[in-house]
Amino acid sequence: MSTEQPATAAIGDARPRIEGRLKVTGAARYAADEPAPDLAHGWVITATVARGRISAVDASAALGMPGVLGVLDHRNAPRLDPRAGNYFGPDGSLLLLQDDVVPYAGRPVVLVVAETPEQARAAAGAVVVTYEPYPHDVDFRLDHPAARPASTAFGPEADTGDIEAELAASAVVVDERYRTPEENCSAMEPHAATAWWQDGHLHAVDSNQGPFSVSQVLATLFGVDRDHVHIRAEHVGGGFGAKGPCGPQVILASMASRSFGRPVRVVLTREQVFLATALRPPTDQWLRIGADADGRLRAVHHRPAFALSPLAEYIEWCTEQARTLYAAPAIRTELTAVPLDILPPSPMRGPGATPGSFALESAMDEVAERLGLDPLDLRLRNQPAVGPVSGLPFSSRRSVACLREGARRFGWAGRDHRPRTRREGRLLIGTGLAATCFSAGVFPSTASITAEADGTFTVAVGATDIGTGARTALTAVAADTLGVGTERIRIRIADSDLGMAWGAGGSRGTTSWSFAITQAAAKLRERLGDPARPVTATVDTTALIDYQPATERHTFSAVFAEVSVDPATGEVRVRRMLGMFAVGRVINPLLARSQVVGGMIMGLSMALHEEGVRDPATGRQVNPDFAGYHIAAHADVPDIEAEFVPDYEPQDPLGLNGLGEIGTAGTAAAIANAVWHATGVRQRTLPIRLDRVL
Ligand code: MOS
Asked: pTM for this one?
């Protein structure tokens, strides 16, 4: 690892968000705040059957109600181009109001448009949609008859060594199933869009994680040039993945605006966010780990299944950890997809890694238990020198530093590793740990920097700030790469007119945008001449990025948790958590800490609370709101410590590596392992409900 770090002024400095004041004073405008002349409002109606067809839409009563402009359904809505897709190719979930087919419960099937949101909502209540239901299947399990190998678009499966022979030769074998439920992205700001057409151009202010990619999808859907679609996402109140794809709100608002010749706003209700936007698929994961008596792993066999929809290919990549974290002579992964009649799953914070590491790190704890080993030692004994499957060198691998420094700060030494040995009054106390990793890298983006005549620099990049502080981080990056103070930087982001750019996702936003900024800054420096004349340099990094992996590039973490369990009620409380993270160089410790603490809270919420419950009889999610789907509230969240080990990613010009998702990924297993330590009861199914503890 290179430890050489360039001398800088702004990078590494803890600074508050540039737009913080705008947000706390209410001056920051979100997608549903955008003023537009003659604005109309759309109200969405969603399907109530899981599979079937629409046999009738009776809008006659609604059309006579006050303020109603019209009702869009599959019979009169603008036609959309079916070639439109999201991450993994064509995506039928984008093709709203195109036919009478109902592919999942919660599918938007009607949009009522009126002068006010209240009028649209009232009229929606008067629309009668009749369905002819077909048999549906929402019965998710690994051994489902429709289970098939998942797409290998992220690379071939691991298959090294002889799994069965190594398992047979192992002193202990853990052979278990781990399950995680459906989960929903619960951003504070529901999905919303305000859209209008003008001179053949589509304009929208939309709540999304990447205005450029959303503009591409909309251009295809509506059959217009990409540069005739102008999408802004100035302020976004959280995304967590659900605002990565082009969402139903902006598709429906754009359709209605075209039909009615007026700007139209569509705001989803919380229930519609649950039912119609995004879903972390449930997983059912078979794991076998074999080890020698001295704790050396011989075999890791991971066969995780996840649910998807026939409408869209998707990869819940649960197997990165099994092929990356530990050395073993035999490693096999078999990622399995189960198509069901559900909302198409899509990435949710720490996609794949979050359920995948829950399974792997729980199973590792079980190996330690059977060998009577310290779970920390078990991990330290199995550190790979190179990628265990790829054979490639690691770019920067500070996993051990995270484990050792985390253990020191948490006070791991001296732990009695036997379960049910610590009590405080009636409470059982336990501690647990988990290690994990998350893939890192960089994607093409465009940055443009103008040296203004007054000595300031305007930096434009199609980044999105979904609450992370991207503006503030990128201002520091621009200041340091230009060698000036941050007061001379003016940053413009979140506008598809700024050019092609990766979105805020995949833990690759900041690395991708910063790379483009460093390249544009270098080009600008070459061109600077007469300081009185503005000069602009624009760089698209597409040609500068080499996709042949020369190294294993990941971020790493270790999470430690302490829980108390009430043996009378089964109530689990997380008393403290500590996360150590290796994420490359940290641009802004204040914002970075906030982001990983948020990630750990999301992991706590996954461990103890979150569960999308689907009724097999109707195929519907029965708890699509915050009354039925609990996310961690302040009272659930203990003292959380999060720190970064010194790290520098040698492949990145600034040493950056990625931050957004690693915080969530390792947390659930650390808590589940702590619950086992407290109680002696293994938690192989999330969430850890009272009935599963007792
Ligand atoms: Mo994140 S789930 O890559 O938006």
From this structure: 0.97
